[in-house]
TrEMBL record:
Family matches, as InterPro entries: Gal_mutarotase_sf_dom, Glyco_hydro/deAcase_b/a-brl, Glyco_hydro_38_C, Glyco_hydro_38_cen, Glyco_hydro_38_cen_sf, Glyco_hydro_38_N, Glyco_hydro_38_N_sf, Glyco_hydro_57/38_cen_sf
Protein name as annotated: Alpha-mannosidase
Domain Glycoside hydrolase family 38 central: 269-347
Family recorded in the similarity comment: Belongs to the glycosyl hydrolase 38 family.
CDD domains assigned to the protein according to its UniProt record, in alphabetical order: GH38N_AMII_EcMngB_like (cd10815)
PANTHER family: ALPHA-MANNOSIDASE 2C1, MANNOSYLGLYCERATE HYDROLASE
Keyword terms, alphabetized: Glycosidase, Hydrolase, Metal-binding
Length: 878
């Protein structure tokens, strides 16, 4: 017997070649039909695409519809959640995925109940950590379409993660639209046959729906016709996803177990080139993720400890902005220009709110703690461990010369990086009529050890002694490296490895005749190696704390694909690149600014190593992944029917790495997400800076033969996606002796701690956009009891936030490796504390300790994600 569970649904792209606004209008009318179909019993069940964002947008306009929606959800007829948006799994951080689910589940529960199915029918690739994320939300069932390799030969299976989590999973190989044939064609046996291959299961799934597809009111008649006309052993059943999975559980013994990610273009396109599409959108949302996770949330906890309430409403609304920008098409950037403009602007708006809240808290805390004293600078560390670091701070002073002293009156080591004289006089049309009032804004580097979840305060003293400055040098040097520019080539010496790497860093330019979905080489391509031989200016500045090399120049490039074919360099891209090292870490910060004035090309940073690696390594939401440098199906992908060339372009979240037993090269990214390892005499780590293309989808590209992606019959030009104009690229290069993912994630974390300072001063009222507004100091809790300190941490910090009910703190850590961490570190608290274990949803799952001030953490099993609920003893605090 073949039981085919037929599920009426719609797949609702949040935005794509249309905007969110356009889709929303379609949706408000769609909802009339959904509610009518349920009310009149023309449909028994309906699934609203597993995401709450569209329902939230709908209820914002029609709050009166809440009662009706609740009625059908509670009755188990309308299925909503668990996601807030249909997320992209490959380029979003673990915290973003967790928050997306958490918000979606909370909203669905408020409307009567959540569909606990890990439902991602269209996401471009399935991440290896999804089973453990799902299990963290008590989700035991998952569904996806894209990415399953044909040789896995499985349609229904158990999908497992490295921590032992397992979810029963349906791979809807024929797409989420497979059931449209049931309502539009009469070949029922053929359909039943098609959707039941590659499995011993007798329970099958047929989703009936499609992109923004209207309700199929005749589903019942079509099911009944199909049951009359198809073979006796086949039964179509009107159903829903939870019921289907319940039934599939009965067949569990027959089903295989698989683990890992699914990114093969066997049954559908997977768009590996999407990781490098629209770098600008990815950069903005990456910044917002970083700002929320590593600054605003932990700083809000610090502020709450001092008595300033957490602005949870703002924080949740910012996570929703992140989630909307990380819907699968939105994150991909494979959209029309007007849609991408909307996505970009929403991200920028979110950043303004996140940054302003950080700015407000830094100011409120600082002015309240120093009791009105002027000219003190506070450096903050919201993270729950001590940080020894070099902080860059902008100070405003009356005089050009000044010094810093600590609270004991001892001088603090500080180095001047740049200085600007600013006008302080009332502006007049005639500059002669203005008085001579000025102040100085100086960027300085300060070496400091910041306590966990706390601050240091220094006094700025205006003196006549100059601040030490960087001096001109011929090569850049710190405790780890020497970097030279010789004859246009960059040479690196590693003091740790005692090795020279000549010509170790350059850029590569090549054509891109793909589209916003995929990079594809030009049909007549020309690769150019871009070094620094044509530079206009090169300068090395050396100090005790900071050393940097600045190179400015122009690269001559083909203007477009025609010039590239002719190998003519009739276009120019001017650049400024800064390589910077400091005294405290072995990171080489790379900062590149370009004026892109050429079309249809891809630019990559190339790092030439001496590794002999067989895999590339990068991070995933809660782990590390090793992938082959060359895919096994690269030679035969066309013969085996792959929908696109399985080029080894890889996504990264925080880091890309290439290592062997002798050396380990990493790139810590700040927004760009795409890398590739190029094999050769010297293996190269290629990091995509950006790529510019002019179309949403193109047919018959070199890497992706066949129909255009997106719209098959309409050309959609996207001139904005050429990214003409300023391009900014940032990240850090690290050369270590060994690969250590925990160390690298800590390095990464330190790069997220910029601009967490506040100077109490009246001279400069423009340090932040909200500095102009008066703010009252507040009487604060001076000796807060909500502080957590982690020592000897050997797992990775993921997040620190207030619990939703505001009674405690959620601290999330994870073990990225496949080996247990037996001594993961020790937690210390300033006051007796109750510690519980929470799941990812924030529900208490276990009690750890009732009244402790220190807690050696128990071993982390391989891949474990652990969330502590930390509740300070309320009575003790009062
Ligand atoms: Zn979609």
């Amino acid at each position: 017997m073949k039981d085919i569970y037929t599920v009426a649904h719609t797949h609702w792209d949040f935005e794509w070649y249309f905007t969110r606004q356009e889709a929303r209008v379609q949706f408000i009318f769609h909802m009339d039909e959904v509610l009518e179909a349920l009310e009149t019993n023309q449909l028994d069940y309906y699934t609203l695409d597993g995401q709450m964002s569209i329902i939230e947008d709908y209820l914002a306009l029609f709050p009166e519809k809440e009662v009706e929606i609740k009625k059908f959800v509670t009755a188990g007829r309308l299925f909503i959640g668990p996601w807030f948006t249909q997320i992209d799994e490959m380029t979003t951080s673990g915290e973003s995925i967790v928050r997306n689910l958490k918000i979606g589940i909370t909203e669905a529960k408020a409307l009567g109940g959540v569909m606990r199915v890990g439902y991602l029918p269209d996401s471009f690739g399935q991440g290896q950590d999804m089973p453990k994320i799902y299990q963290g939300f008590d989700i035991s069932h998952a569904l996806f379409w894209r990415g399953m390799p044909r040789e896995a030969n499985a349609r229904y299976f158990y999908w497992s993660s490295n921590d032992g989590s397992k979810v029963l999973t349906a791979n809807i190989k024929n797409g989420y639209y497979a059931g449209v044939e049931l309502v539009e064609q009469n070949q029922f046996d053929e359909l039943a046959e098609k959707i039941s291959t590659q499995t011993p299961s007798e329970t099958h799934l047929l989703p009936v729906g499609g992109d923004q597809r209207a309700v199929d009111f005749d589903l019942k008649q079509r099911i009944s016709l199909a049951n009359q006309e198809s073979e006796e052993a086949t039964r179509f059943i009107e159903s829903n996803y939870p019921v289907f999975f319940k039934s599939l559980e009965n067949e569990s013994e027959k089903l295989p177990e698989l683990s890992g990610e699914f990114i093969e273009p066997s049954d559908s396109k997977i768009h590996r080139g999407i990781y490098s599409s629209r770098y600008d959108l990815k950069q903005v949302y990456d910044r917002l993720e970083r700002s929320l996770t590593y600054q605003l949330e932990p700083l809000s906890v610090v502020a709450a400890n001092h008595g300033i309430p957490v602005k949870q409403g703002l924080i949740t609304s910012l996570w929703k902005i992140v989630a909307r920008g990380q819907a699968h098409d939105s994150a991909g950037g494979c959209n029309s220009d007007k849609t991408n403009q909307d996505i970009y602007l929403r991200g920028v708006n979110g950043l303004q709110e996140a940054q302003s809240c950080v700015d407000y808290l830094l100011r409120k805390l600082s002015i309240s703690l120093n009791h009105g004293q002027d000219n003190q600078v506070f450096l903050w560390n919201p993270l729950p461990f001590e940080l020894t670091t070099i902080r860059k701070v902008a100070l405003s002073t009356k005089t050009a010369t000044f010094s810093l002293v600590d609270q004991k009156g001892q001088p603090v080591e500080v180095e001047l990086l740049s200085q600007k004289r600013e006008n302080a006089a009332l502006l007049r049309r005639d500059p002669e009529a203005m008085s001579d009032e000025h102040y100085y804004v100086s960027e300085v580097a300060i070496e400091c050890t910041l306590p966990s979840m706390g601050w240091l305060c220094f006094t700025v003293e205006e003196t006549t002694v100059s601040v030490p400055q960087l001096t001109k040098a011929t090569e850049l040097e710190n405790d780890w490296y020497v970097i030279q520019l010789k004859e246009g080539k960059l040479n690196l010496y590693s003091k740790e490895l005692k090795k020279w790497y000549h010509d170790f860093l350059w850029f590569e330019d090549s054509g891109d005749e793909g589209d916003t979905y995929d990079y594809s080489p030009a049909f007549n391509d020309w690769f150019l190696k871009l070094d620094f031989s044509q530079h206009n200016q090169a300068m090395v500045e050396q100090g005790d704390l900071i050393s940097r090399m600045t190179i400015e120049g122009e690269w001559a490039l083909p203007f477009d694909l025609c010039s590239r074919k002719e190998q003519v360099t009739d276009g120019t891209v001017s650049y400024t690149m800064v390589l910077e090292c400091n005294k405290q870490t072995n990171l080489i910060d790379v900062h590149l600014t370009l004026d892109n004035q050429v079309l249809d090309h891809r630019l990559r940073l190339m790092i030439a190593t001496k590794t002999k690696a067989v895999v590339s390594t990068s991070d995933t939401p809660f782990g590390i992944i090793k992938r082959p440098i060359e895919e096994k199906h690269l030679p035969d992908w066309k013969e085996i029917g792959y929908k696109e060339e399985p080029t080894s372009m890889r996504p990264m979240l925080h880091l890309a790495n290439l290592h062997d037993e002798k050396e380990s090269w990493s790139f810590l990214t700040r927004g760009t997400k795409d890398f590739q390892v190029i094999d050769g005499e010297r293996q190269q780590l290629a990091i995509t800076v950006f790529r510019g293309v002019g179309y949403l989808g193109r047919p018959d590209t070199l890497r992706r033969p066949g129909d255009a992606s997106g719209l098959q019959t309409k050309v959609v030009p996207t001139p904005d996606s050429q990214l003409v104009g300023t391009v900014v690229f940032e990240g850090s290069l690290v050369l270590d002796e060994f690969f250590d993912s925990q160390k690298l994630q800590t390095n990464y974390l330190e790069t997220t701690q910029e601009a967490l300072d506040y100077q109490t001063q009246e001279l400069n009222r423009f340090t932040t956009p909200i500095q102009y507004f008066p703010v009252n100091p507040k009487s604060l809790i001076e000796d807060p009891r909500g502080k957590v300190t982690i020592d000897e941490l050997t797992v990775v910090f993921s997040s620190l936030q207030a619990t939703i009910d505001g009674t405690g703190i959620e601290l999330r850590l994870y073990n990225p490796t496949d080996v247990a961490q037996t001594a993961p570190g020790k937690l210390s608290f300033d006051a007796p504390t109750e510690v519980k274990l929470l799941n990812l949803e924030g529900k208490v799952i276990d009690s750890v300790s009732e009244n402790v001030t220190t807690l050696p953490m128990s071993a982390f099993k391989p891949g474990e994600i652990r969330t502590y609920g930390i509740f300070f003893n309320q009575k003790e605090m009062e």
